[in-house]
Amino acid sequence: MANFALSSTTVRSLKNALQDRFPSVKSAHLSEAIAVTAGFRTHAALLAYTKSTTAVPIVFLNDKPFVQRLHELGYPGIKPFAFSSVWLGATDVPEEARDLIARLLKLEEQPEGRYPVIHALRRQCATLFAKTFGIGYVEPSEDDKSLAKRLTRGVDHKACQPGWGNSINTNHPGLDFPGSDHQVRFYERLPLSNGKYVEYSTALVSMPYKGSFRIPELPAAQALAARVGWQYAELADWTWYSAHATTLILYRRTTTHEEMLNMWSTSFKRWLIENRSRLLKGANTDRRHVINDAIDCQHLPLDVQSWAEVRENYFKEFAPSMYHFEEEPMARAFKKVFDKWLSERAAT
After folding, report:
1. What's the rounded Cα separation, in Å, for the pair 179 and 184?
2. Cα 58 to Cα 3: distance, rounded to the nearest angstrom
3. Pair 89, 57: CB distance under 8 Å
4. Which of 73-82, 127-136, 261-270 bottoms out in mean pLDDT, i.e. has the lowest?
5. Which of 145, 149, 158 lies closest to 192 in space, CA to CA?
6. Which of 254, 241, 237, 238 is nearest to 214 (CA)?
7. Tell me: the pLDDT tens digits for 200-227?
């Protein structure tokens, strides 16, 4: 199962991926099966919906209605499959990963004295997983002196739902998915002009025990992922932490790294980080708080181009007082900094 932001663009992308997976199925029949999977009776109904609304609802893809519809359309040989692997752009578990997991299972039968080897093999699995799904690299074990800032999981503004701010505690704004256990974090880099870089969270893998109290929490995690614009996928065959006893949940950003790089290159966020010392020099208390908070906040959109967008896409959800009361001191301080960025960007 995987969550899916429903729009004409994503439907086309999904169909392209399914055509590669099922080349013998006619294009029109794939369209009908996709429609049923998305909760519509026919492809015509799905098409009418995507044309009539700008909303991008989240639906959960399940192979059962898809396979059943294709059986009805004359393809009895279509077998159940992992919808998540198709939509996420990955293949079945590669042989190399299966070999690593088999070795881990053997070592875990008598783990005493073997933990260094077990940890090394788990990291190999994580690295191979990252490569297969294109989610960056495994969280480094040592700090890099070139790392200027690390941003943890943040709202993906490309696919988040209205009201996402209700899911974020502004006092503790980390994005934590319920039911997570034995987590592995993945990152990508955003360059700075001084040769250093900012690291941001691209994905999270969770491997809870199948019979644990955490499993009933997964529906809440699935719903949270949909609200904040992250993809959710169950990939049980990939689990490498006590593989006989756990399952694997992948949470990953909807926005691709290429899209993040494009937004980053001219973003307000990058300007703040690169000019932090200059901006803080002589700044009053409110302005210092605004600068530091905007730099630290993982939920600040990278693509805002106007003050109206900042208010609508950020303050309205994350800091309502600064949205409703534009004369509030922190809102005024934020606007002054933002206007300075706009002025300097126009000048260059």
Report:
1. 14
2. 6
3. no
4. 73-82
5. 149
6. 241
7. 999 999 999 999 999 999 989 988 998 8
112-127 CB burial, b ≥16 within 10 A, e <16: eeeeeebeebbebbbe
Three-class SS of the chain: CEEEECCHHHHHHHHHHHHHHCCCCCHHHHHHHHHHHCCCCCHHHHHHHHHHCCCCCEEEECHHHHHHHHHHCCCCCCCCCCHHHHHCCCCCCCHHHHHHHHHHHHHHHCCCCCHHHHHHHHHHHHHHHHHHHCCCEECCCCCCCCEEEEECCCCCCCCCCCCHHHHCECCECCCCCCCCCCCEEEEEEEECCCCCEEEEEEEEEECCECCCCCHHHHHHHHHHHHHHCEEEEECHHHCCCCCCCECCEEEEECCCHHHHHHHHCCCHHHHHHHCHHHHHCCCCHHHHHHHHHHHHCCCCCCCCCCHHHHHHHHHHHHCHHHHHCCCCHHHHHHHHHHHHHHHHHHHC
Partners of 251 in beta bridges: 204, 232
Q: How many CB atoms lie within 10 A of CB 99?
A: 11
Residue length of the chain: 348
Residues 6+ apart with CB under 8 A from 98: none
Q: In which residue are the tokens 């053997």 written? A: 106
| Burial of residue 110 (number of CB atoms within 10 Å: 0-12, 13-18, 19+) | exposed
Residue 59's DSSP bridge partners are 4
- Rounded CA gap, 301 and 156, in Å? 8
d(Cα 234, Cα 249) in Å, to the nearest integer? 5
The model's pLDDT over 135-193, given as tens digits with 9 standing for 90+, comes to 999 998 677 889 999 999 999 998 888 899 999 988 888 899 999 999 999 999 999 99
Q: Which of 115, 136, 114, 118 is nearest to 127 (CA)?
A: 136
